Amino acid sequence: MVPIPDRPLNICLLSYRSNPHCGGQGVYLKNLCRALKDLGHHVEVVSGPPDPLLDPDIPLCQPACLDLYNPEHLFRVPTLRELTDPVNLMEWAGVSTMGFPEPFTFGFRAQRYLRTRMRRYDIVHDNQSLSYGIWSIAKKIPTIATIHHPITVDREIAIRAVRPFWKKLKQWRWFSFIGMQKRVSRTLRRIITVSQCARQDIAKAFRIPQERFCVVPNGINTRLFYPISDIQRERGRIIVTNSSDVPLKGLYYLLHAVAQLARQRTVRLVVVGTPKMNGGIARLIQRLGIGHLIHYLGHISDDEFVRQYARASMAVVASVYEGFGLPAGEAMACGTPVISTTGGALPEVVGDAGVLVPPADSTALTQAMADLLDHPEHAAELGRRGYKRVLQHFTWQRAAEKTVAAYHEVLRDYGRL
Description:
There is one protein chain. The protein has helices at residues 24-38, 86-96, 102-114, 132-138, 151-160, 165-174, 178-187, 196-206, 251-261, 280-288, 302-311, 326-333, 346-350, 362-374, 376-393, 396-413, and strands at residues 10-15, 42-47, 60-61, 123-127, 143-146, 191-193, 213-215, 237-240, 268-272, 294-298, 314-317, 338-341, 355-357. It is α/β, with parallel strands linked by helices and 417 residues long. It has 2 domains: 10-219 and 395-413, Rossmann fold (3-Layer(aba) Sandwich), CATH 3.40.50; 237-393, Rossmann fold, CATH 3.40.50.2000.
């Protein structure tokens, strides 16, 4: 049993890209630092773009960077003055050669920021940048990292999804940062991950002993996601919370399932997000002839998000793989019946509170959606089970308590306890 320090911890959380509205890393950062603060610890955040929109009582530093993935100035050309900074030059060179250098360059910026500030912190917690800068930081101060899921899965699925050889090479280049992340993660004494499935898959893909991992399931923010009783669910209204044109998320299979289901039932698919007008998903929708059945909501407020869940007769999580599956948990927190694949850790989240189908199987998705539409009483019971399951197993307070326990393990490993 690790002894617990009497005093609160001083924690520095690092996160290279932390959009709080999309992507699990931003949601994780925003909610975890809030929950750690509520436990009485002092938390400061060093983050890359965009603004993670933290609560005002949580200090934030955002080191200057090129921000080349800003959708308002996508792949802009840096000024010559900006390129006099070697880190900026490496970032520009990486993007110009079809790579994704942000984890790599963020680590150097974090190391630069912490160089004169390390005495302020008891521990540094890296949110999956796993860069060489983190390797250097870990030599001087107790450091732990969260790996949400093995990014090697994303790479394998992305490469399989494209046909021309040059497109496969492009995907290999984009994911070239994985080699760095494997090397750095092997040097860390402790790693947090969010599910038993993720622990097993990361350990195998990154060649890290499983005993180094601390499994800390994500929480669901039940202040933002909760049931609304005075809104009636609309029959045939299906919600999906990922419009990404990324093979990993399985939207391809869901669209095929909706096309099949529409021949038998009256349905409408509501997608939270904005489509890529020239992407593969847009072309698939046109080919299937289901554009009139799909409504894109774009970016919506948290309040509207909850109302959309309340109106839906079901939520579908069609991902081929998830290290955890926040969309499933958020739908369950709203009392919305969930259909999910068994990809990755999704069964650990959904349990017996939803319908589970094999990943990459549009026929199974079609049958599951039809069954819930035909049995509204069963759907309502699943909604009640899902809400209860979230309250019992997936709160951010519980996640923060387990994270602090992992910090204590690291401090002991460094001889700080």
